[in-house]
Amino acid sequence: MLKIYLGDLVYDTVKTNYVVPLGSGYLAAMLNDRFPGETEIAIFKYPKNLGKALNDSPSDGLALSNYSWNTNLNKLFLKMV
C-alpha cells in the first residue's frame, strides 16, 4: 500500500487561515476512487503536523498545493524530503 501525504500548508501563526484544503481533498478522493485499497492518504494543513508525520513515518509520495503565500514553506518541505 502506498502512503501519500498531501499538503495545503499555511503559516499557523496567522489566525485567518482556517479554510478547508479542498483541492487536496479532491485529489485524495480521486486517488481513493482510482486505486481502491491501494493508497493510504493523509491531508495536512499545518506545517508542524506534516513535519512530525514525515519524521515519524515517511511517505512514498508528497504533493503540495502551491500558492504565492506558501511557496517558501513548500520549498522547506521539499528540501526536507
Compute the number of helices: 3
What structural class do you assign from the helix and strand content?
alpha/beta
Outline the low-pLDDT stretches.
none
Please give the oligomerization state of what you see: single chain
Helix content: 40-55%
The tally of beta strands, per DSSP, is 3
Q: What is the CA–CA distance across the termini?
A: 19 Å
Mean pLDDT: 92
Describe this protein's structure:
The chain is an alpha/beta fold and 81 residues long. It has one domain (2-80). 41% of the residues lie in helices and 20% in strands. It is built from three helices and three strands; from the N terminus they run E-H-E-H-E-H. It has a three-stranded parallel beta sheet. The two termini are 19 Å apart. The mean pLDDT is 92.
Give a nutshell description of this structure.
The chain is α/β, with parallel strands linked by helices and 81 residues long. It has helices at residues 22-34, 47-56, 71-80, and strands at residues 2-7, 39-44, 61-64.
Write the layout of secondary structure elements.
Elements: E1 2-7, H1 22-34, E2 39-44, H2 47-56, E3 61-64, H3 71-80
Parallel strand pairs: 1-2, 1-3
